[in-house]
Amino acid sequence: MLENYLHLIRPGIDTHQELVVYMRQDCHVCRSEGFTAHSRVRIQVGERSAVATLNIVKGDFLPHNQAALSEAAWRKLKPEEGEKAYFKHAPAVDSMSAVRGKLYGKPLTTAAAKSVIEDINAGHYSDIQLAAFVAACSGNRLTLDETVAITGAMIDAGQRFKWNSERVLDKHCVGGLPGNRTTPIVTAIIAANGLVMPKTSSRAITSPAGTADTMEVLTDVQLSYDRMAEVVKQTGGCLAWGGSVSLSPADDVIIRVERALDLDSEGQLVASVISKKVAAGSTHVLIDIPTGPTAKVRSPEFAARLSELLIGTGAAFGLKVKTIISDGSQPVGMGIGPALEARDVLKVLQCQTDSPQDLRSRSLAIAAALLEMSAGNGQRTGTGQSAGNEWLTLATDTLDSGRAYQKFQEICLAQGRFSEPELAAHRRTVKATRGGIVSSVNNRILARLASLAGAPNAKAAGLDLHVRLGDCVTLGDPLLTVYAEAPGELEYALDFLMSHPDGVHIGEEAV
Question: Which segments constitute the Pyrimidine nucleoside phosphorylase C-terminal domain (predicted)?
Fold first, then answer.
């Protein structure tokens, strides 16, 4: 009688975060267990186990005695090449009853939210089940109580930092605004003033750059829990990738499915932000909500509702949250893409004469508001007003004196290195085909253009935006420059721009 095991191989198949196992339809394990395509299968390797989705293979891709793992499954199980793995049907996921109930309008209880998040964190949900949960929470379907329940469950599912400081500062931007890379500048200003700011950030999934992608151009961002703690102890701050320290691991899985479905949930967004801030050990958080016709948040009403939910959820966990509703009508800075945004960050920190002034001013405003919060003020929601003059003066002096740049270098070196960004060799400047006034800039089209050029996977790819809203241009003036690491990617991006010319719209004729 054949034993219920197969030998594992690693073919190098990238399924992002989804755990997938591949086996022959006619292998003895598949036949004896009655597995079919998309079965949920528990894999046991020594003392380690995981649940994966089964893909059935026909033909000679696999021998009868082998099973293949996706890269995500291989990282999870950490087997040796050829090691034995045992297979059986995964148990039913009981928490799915709470998801089905929510789809039919039944509120999520604290216990139900905990059960769902625990199962997601343990890898028990298939992508289909995750999609059902995302749909159940989409739009404004989550109440404040449900959002608090999900947030608490996410916090409990990951690691949590505790710092020896009464006030631990943090900031976040809800996103949707290309180039808005204020975080590295703000963190340097705050830490240079002797305050604690353990900043963790995300990578991009569908956007051309996340803060972690941009910082990875300049330094190492994959820090272990202990390494991150040491960097913060040494420098007062850090600029690390949140995924490497597992602060809210279930959230990373949920975000992947939300992006794939292009479904936004107000409550889930809030749970994502607040859970990671609480897990990072923060006590005072400033949240930037860019609002504009092509930003993630498109109306003042939505921004106000989101602000209220962020503040209320933070308060449930003792977190002091202040929000700023900012201008989201156009990208910030010149560059869109990891290396191009890193270049802009360095220009501001180094106070270069050609540094993007909008990135500088936004960073100073956020830093000033955080400095004010550190003194015990500014704990109410804002509407974009500048912080008190003394705090703005302090933030500006910290930047202009070079102390912020010195602290930034110190943080980077503590994380492993400090490197200068390099831009892609293949580039093309797109010029105005008529004269007039720049009347609109489409954030989504420009973000897509930078992504098609290769960002964020190609760190040196992206684009430079040479004009701003209200600028007067004449025929032949440069509008933007696209950068790519390969000629094919450059042409692919430019073809997209030809079919989407309203990334930068020229309105009325200039006088």
Answer: 437-503
